[in-house]
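Input record, target 12 of the design panel.
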């Protein structure tokens, strides 16, 4: 550890918890890069995180990370709040995943002289001293990989641009900034996979899967401006949070050979990564495809199936993701020597899998792994014929894949099956040829590689076992909480049902009240109509008047309402109070009844509507000249005024028909004159170079 490392240790104050309303209270002790120190007796979580961001501490030491994590939060999501260069150190965590007593750990390293409990500030100070001694495990919630996504300009809208021009500009921006990022990655010799969704004018979006830590990627991109493109940079989270020793020293334990199942793995990387796993007998163990699958997550997925001895891709050159995966296990990459067609890939997939709905990525991964197996199948069959156990046959196949011949692989297994004393005595035995000694050396090296790989799988499985044990505890707690929730839910449901019944009754009562209010209004309106009709009836009976029905407005709605409320029939007299606003359809609706006369109050009908009623021979006149008595619902006119109105309309009708005929005759004459003038113009001669006849001169 560097002497100038900045470290902050923290401990939660007694009786403080993230579950409490006031939140967790923290005591901290900080060592800054210049060597200065500072104690913090009480900090809120937000102030503590702001302090870390402000000073970018390299190490953040704790004896219990869950103390500061809120409900529903994980270690990975908590680490999202920290600077990318900061490391969260679990000081009292061991390599096996167990925790030791913090006081005992401090006492053992002579930080305290007795095992008495310390205050929160002193505990934080002790955590810092342990980290300075290289004690603790760094928690690793992220993969050592970085994803960069470039999208269309953020907060952009097309404004006054056309849609096509706006889209073209966005695609050009994405393509330009993606190339800028690619050049920076190339200049710094970072390995990456590139996925660009190209379009006619540029790119819709782009993504780079960089095989470096996020802080290293951000460092090389920090001096560049990618505006106006939207650029997101993040590291994929691990499914399981792993840990490594603070002093980076590796654990040196005994290596042992085991019978872990050996696999051939096919990978088709991309936005969606397809994976196919084949055992050494040619059976498909499993296949799947996942979006944004990181290398670390793929390793965790494979840990439950076995150890890969060969990884396959269906294209050349080998994608970086595949080569990085192979480098993790130090195994070979197999690619086809020919380009596999879609039909051939589909045929391979059909031979291995019976499910019909697989995507193209999964199909390509299956095709790659099956093609590789076919290349080795002949030699695998030769090994199967030997008198060896299944375990020994699989080891021999592994050696074959590593580069040994069938003969050497079988010979190596037979040598390995002998006792260790016999193998050690080989070099002294004159009967062994130098070629055998060379073979033994090669086998030893290959076995070392295989054991190393299996150790990785063993550690992953051990870690998985610890996590599963913890999950069992969590599941029991979840079951307990679920039972409590069920009881609470029953109470809530009962209360909710009560409230819903009350609400439903309130709604029904409101509807009934509204209906009653409307009925009262209708009754009052009907009573007014009855009173008006009674008055008009008496007046009519006394004076011999003719009743008139009232239309409040010249509209389809008012006409239909009048038809509904009063029985309209041919010969009725109608008074329209507001004749404006209607059109041809309204006129046709009104003309469906052959009215004896229609009077208009205040205004004329629209010309189009008037013409339709006129053609239907329905008499219409303004009401001002005639003595009409009316209320809101009914009116009367005496017989003499009605007779005079009919005579006036007949006179108007005759004059209008006569005028229309005159206009037609006049228009016919005008049309004839126009056509005749046109014909005369067409018959005019061209007088250029024309000799005048004598009769023409005399005429002039």
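The sequence produced for target 12 reads:
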């Amino acid at each position: 550890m560097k002497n100038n490392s900045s470290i902050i240790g923290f401990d939660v104050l007694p009786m403080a918890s993230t579950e409490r309303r006031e939140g967790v209270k923290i005591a901290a002790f900080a060592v800054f890069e210049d060597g200065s120190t500072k104690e913090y007796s009480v900090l809120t979580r937000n102030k503590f995180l702001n302090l870390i961001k402000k000073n970018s501490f390299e190490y953040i030491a704790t004896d219990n990370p869950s103390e500061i994590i809120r409900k529903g939060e994980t270690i990975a999501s908590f680490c999202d709040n920290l600077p990318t260069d900061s490391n969260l150190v679990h000081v009292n965590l061991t390599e096996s995943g167990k925790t030791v007593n913090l006081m005992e750990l401090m006492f053992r390293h002579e930080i305290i002289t007795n095992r008495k409990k310390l205050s929160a500030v002193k505990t934080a100070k002790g955590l810092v001293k342990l980290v300075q001694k290289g004690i603790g495990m760094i928690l690793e919630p992220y993969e050592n990989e970085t994803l960069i996504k470039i999208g269309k300009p953020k907060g952009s809208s097309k404004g006054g641009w056309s849609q096509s021009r706006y889209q073209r500009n966005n695609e050009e921006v994405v393509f330009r900034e993606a190339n800028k990022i690619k050049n920076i990655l190339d200049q710094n010799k970072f390995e990456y996979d590139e996925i660009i969704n190209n379009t006619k004018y540029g790119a819709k979006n782009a993504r780079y899967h960089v095989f470096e830590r996020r802080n290293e990627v951000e460092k090389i991109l920090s001096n560049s401006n990618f505006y106006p493109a939207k650029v997101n940079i993040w590291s994929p989270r691990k499914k399981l949070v792993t840990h490594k020793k603070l002093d980076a020293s590796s654990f040196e334990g005994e290596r042992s050979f085991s019978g872990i199942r050996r696999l051939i793995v096919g990978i088709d990387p991309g936005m969606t990564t397809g994976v196919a796993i084949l055992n050494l007998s040619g059976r498909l163990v499993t296949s799947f495809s996942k979006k944004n699958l990181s290398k670390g997550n793929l390793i965790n997925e494979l840990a439950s199936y076995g150890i890969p001895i060969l990884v396959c891709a269906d294209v050349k050159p080998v994608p970086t993701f595949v080569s990085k995966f192979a480098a993790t296990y130090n195994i070979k990459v197999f690619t086809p020597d020919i380009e596999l067609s879609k039909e051939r890939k589909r045929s391979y997939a059909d031979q291995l899998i019976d499910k019909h709905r697989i995507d193209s990525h999964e199909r390509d991964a299956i095709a790659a792994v099956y093609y590789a197996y076919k290349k080795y199948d002949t030699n695998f069959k030769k090994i199967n014929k030997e008198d060896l156990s299944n375990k020994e046959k699989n080891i021999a196949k592994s050696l074959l894949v590593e580069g040994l011949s069938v003969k050497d692989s079988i010979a190596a297994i037979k040598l390995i099956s002998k006792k260790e004393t016999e193998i050690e005595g080989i070099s002294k035995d004159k009967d062994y040829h130098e070629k055998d000694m060379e073979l033994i050396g090669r086998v030893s090296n290959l076995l070392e590689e295989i054991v190393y790989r299996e150790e990785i799988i063993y550690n992953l499985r051990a870690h998985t076992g610890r996590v599963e044990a913890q999950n069992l505890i969590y599941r029991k707690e979840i079951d307990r909480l679920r039972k409590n929730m069920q009881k609470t839910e029953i109470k809530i449901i009962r209360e909710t049902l009560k409230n819903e019944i009350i609400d439903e009754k309130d709604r029904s009562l409101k509807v009934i009240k509204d209906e009653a209010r409307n009925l009262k209004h209708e009754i009052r309106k009907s009573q007014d109509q009855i009173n008006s009709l009674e008055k008009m009836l008496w007046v009519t009976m006394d004076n011999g008047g003719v009743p008139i029905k009232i239309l409040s407005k010249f509209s389809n709605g008012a006409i239909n309402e009048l038809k509904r409320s009063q029985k309209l029939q041919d010969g009725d007299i109608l008074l329209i109070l507001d004749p404006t606003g209607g059109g041809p359809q309204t006129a046709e609706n009104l003309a469906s009844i052959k009215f004896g006369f229609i009077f208009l109050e205040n205004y004329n009908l629209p010309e189009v509507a008037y013409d339709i009623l006129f053609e239907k021979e329905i008499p219409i006149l303004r009401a001002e000249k005639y003595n009409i008595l009316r209320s809101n619902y009914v009116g009367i006119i005496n017989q003499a005024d009605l007779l005079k109105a009919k005579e006036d309309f007949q006179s108007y009708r005759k004059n209008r028909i006569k005028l229309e005929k005159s206009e037609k005759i006049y228009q016919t004459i005008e049309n004839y004159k126009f056509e005749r003038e046109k014909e005369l113009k067409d018959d005019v001669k061209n007088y250029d170079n024309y000799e005048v006849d004598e009769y023409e001169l005399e005429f002039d």
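Confidence is low (pLDDT under 50) at residues 248-259, 419-432, 694-700.
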